[in-house]
Design brief:
Elements (H helix, E strand, L loop, with lengths): L2 H16 L2 H6 L2 H30 L5 H34 L3
Helix pairs in contact: 1-4, 3-4
């Protein structure tokens, strides 16, 4: 397995753990908010790393392999975020369909 796939898998597993139903039941409101804030910070950090790697590659300080690895990790993070967003929208739509 390639290193980029392992990094993407690690990020996916971290995201999966943070939204697991059994974890949500154990968390209080403030702890849940901090988990959400952690997730957002990690998500933005992935894209900051991609920018830094791309800039380093443009001046010859990084190789193409590290750029591809960073892009693959960012792609996996974005796909995970889109999936989470889609599930939240589906849940909201389901709530709207419920009779009052």
């Amino acid at each position: 397995m390639e290193a980029s796939a392992l990094g993407a898998l690690r990020h996916y597993q971290a995201a999966q753990k943070s939204i697991a139903p059994d974890q949500k039941a154990k968390l209080s409101g403030t702890e849940e908010k901090s988990k959400l804030a952690q997730g957002v910070e990690e998500f933005s950090k992935v894209f900051e790393d991609v920018e830094k790697t791309a800039q380093a590659a443009s001046v010859g300080q990084a190789d193409a392999h590290s750029v591809v690895e960073a892009l693959a990790t960012a792609e996996m993070a974005l796909e995970t975020a889109v999936t989470v967003r889609n599930r939240v929208v589906e849940a909201y739509q389901e709530l709207l369909r419920m009779p009052v």
